[in-house]
Design brief:
The complex is a heterodimer of chains A (115) and B (115). By secondary structure, chain A is an all-beta fold. Chain A has no helices and 11 strands. Chain B is built from no helices and 12 strands. The termini of chain B are far apart. The chains are: A mainly beta (115), B mainly beta (115). At the A-B interface, β4, β5, β9 and β10 of A face β5, β6, β10 and β11 of B.
Amino acid sequence: DTAVSQTPKYLVTQMGNDKSIKCEQNLGHDTMYWYKQDSKKFLKIMFSYNNKELIINETVPNRFSPKSPDKAHLNLHINSLELGDSAVYFCASSQVAGGRTDTQYFGPGTRLTVL
Amino acid sequence: AQSVTQLDSHVSVSEGTPVLLRCNYSSSYSPSLFWYVQHPNKGLQLLLKYTSAATLVKGINGFEAEFKKSETSFHLTKPSAHMSDAAEYFCVVSDPTSGTYKYIFGTGTRLKVLA
């Protein structure tokens, strides 16, 4: 069973379009994350949800809107796509407990290409 | 603020020789530190983690890392490189201030293994 899954794996679209990426985890974790990996492989946090509540919102354009319908799902919707949005987007989950961080488990990534 | 510095962007070793990937961290707290590996076009896989237990941490595939507080380092080593170790390696520190322990990634080290 896949622990953290993302769909789609690849997404090719035109500038100006709106698209969504879905993430699901079956680990029973209470916290989920979105990271962006740019063309130089640099990874940066975008958002984090804890028990469906937005906890982290880094300096991300408001064209990006995360939505968490339940603890097991965290979707990322992107409006008015731009060339600079081309990247690999990773979803992750963890169980935040006891005042110490726990391991984050990553999905396989979604490669977004904006033409 | 938490940060990590990976001192080498590229490392090349011959198959069968030792691997050393260097990481220095900065943290206002007792840090949790991780090493992840990313094979080409794949997701991120946890190699090992340090969370204030033993300072020498053993991970998967023969990798280990030593936490040295005096040197603020968490270098990754392996006694003998295998061709399958060729990948991108990320050193990560968790930031507890947000309440969800977001990951702060290093810039990555690309390991090349020569036959």
